[in-house]
Design brief:
It contains ten helices and nine strands. With about 260 residues, the protein is of the alpha/beta class. A six-stranded mixed beta sheet has the order 1-2-3-4-6-9, sandwiched between helices. The chain has a three-stranded mixed beta sheet with strand order 5-7-8. Helix 3 packs across helix 4, helix 4 crosses helix 5 and helix 8 runs antiparallel to helix 9.
C-alpha cells in the first residue's frame, strides 16, 4: 500500500508508505494522495488530517528512480491548475486543516508537500532542503511560491539557490516549522489535531479560508471578504451558541 489511512475519532492520519525510497512519490502514490485528501475534505465526520511518512522519513520528493526509468510518461505534467499536481494534492485548497508530522527527510517535493500543509511539526531527526537542486529537478508543486510566503524572500532564496540542508532547529527559527517535538511525533500531532477538532468548526474553517484567500488581496478587499465570511458564521448560530456557553461558564471551562 503506497498510502495508509488511519482514522482516530474525527481525525485521519495519512501516511506515505514507501520507506524503501524514503517515501518518494511516484505517479500511483500521487494519485492515491489526491484521492485520500479529496475524501477527507468531503467527509463530514472528519475534522483534521495529519500527513506523515512511514519508518522515520516524511517524504524525499518525486521518485527520481521512476522518472529515470520511465521518463515523464507516468508523471503527470498538467499545467491546468484545476487538475491534480505532479505530487498529487498540492494544487488543492481544502476546507479543513492539515498538519504535517515530520521526521527524517522532508526535501525537494517533500518540502513542497510540507509547505502545502497548514501547520508543520517536526522532531529532532527532521531535515529540510531543496535537494532537487543537485539533479536539475525544478520545484513545480508550489515550492517557489509557498516557501517565501512562509519564511520570507531572503531565506527562501538561500534554500532554493543553494539546495543546502537545514535541521529542525533552524527550520523552526526560520518559521518553517511551527512546533518542535521532543517525543513521539505522531502522538504530538494527534494531540494538536484533537485540540483543533474540539473547536466550533464553522468559525474555524471560515477564519482559516479567509487567511488563504485574503493573503494577496488589497487590504480593503480582504477585509470586506473577511466581514462577509464572518457574518455568515454569525448567522449560522454558532457564535450565539458560543456566547451562551461562555456566559454559562463565565469562560472558566473554555480552553
Amino acid at each position: 500500500m503506497n498510502i495508509v489511512r488511519e482514522i482516530v475519532n474525527d481525525i485521519i492520519v495519512i501516511t506515505i508508505n514507501r520507506p524503501e525510497v524514503r517515501n518518494a512519490i511516484d505517479r500511483p502514490t500521487a494519485e492515491e494522495l489526491t484521492e485520500a485528501f479529496k475524501n477527507f475534505d468531503a467527509d463530514d465526520n472528519l475534522k483534521v488530517a495529519i500527513l506523515t511518512g512511514a519508518d522515520g522519513n516524511f517524504c524525499a520528493g518525486a521518485d527520481l528512480l521512476a522518472i529515470a526509468e520511465d521518463g515523464h510518461r507516468k508523471n503527470k505534467l498538467n499545467p491546468n491548475m484545476k487538475d491534480d499536481a505532479p505530487l498529487g494534492p498540492t494544487r488543492m485548497l481544502l476546507s479543513k486543516p492539515v498538519i504535517a508530522a515530520i521526521s527524517g527527510y522532508a526535501v525537494a517535493g517533500g518540502l513542497e508537500l510540507a509547505c502545502w500543509c497548514d501547520i508543520r511539526m517536526a522532531d529532532s531527526t527532521a531535515k529540510f532542503g531543496v535537494f532537487c537542486r543537485r539533479f536539475g529537478v525544478p520545484l513545480i508543486d508550489g515550492g517557489t511560491q509557498r516557501l517565501p510566503r512562509l519564511i520570507g524572500l531572503s531565506r527562501a532564496l538561500d534554500l532554493v539557490i543553494t539546495g543546502r540542508e537545514i535541521n529542525a532547529e533552524e527550520a523552526y527559527q526560520f518559521g518553517l516549522v511551527n512546533y518542535l517535538v521532543k517525543g513521539d511525533i505522531k502522538k504530538e500531532a494527534l494531540a494538536l489535531a484533537q485540540n483543533i477538532a474540539s473547536f466550533p468548526q464553522n468559525c474555524l474553517r471560515s477564519d482559516r479560508i479567509c487567511v488563504y484567500k485574503g493573503f494577496n488581496m488589497p487590504l480593503l478587499d480582504a477585509m470586506e471578504m473577511e466581514f462577509a465570511q464572518g457574518t455568515d458564521v454569525i448567522r449560522s448560530g454558532e457564535t450565539l451558541e458560543g456566547a451562551r456557553k461562555f456566559a454559562a461558564t463565565k469562560g472558566k471551562k473554555l480552553p
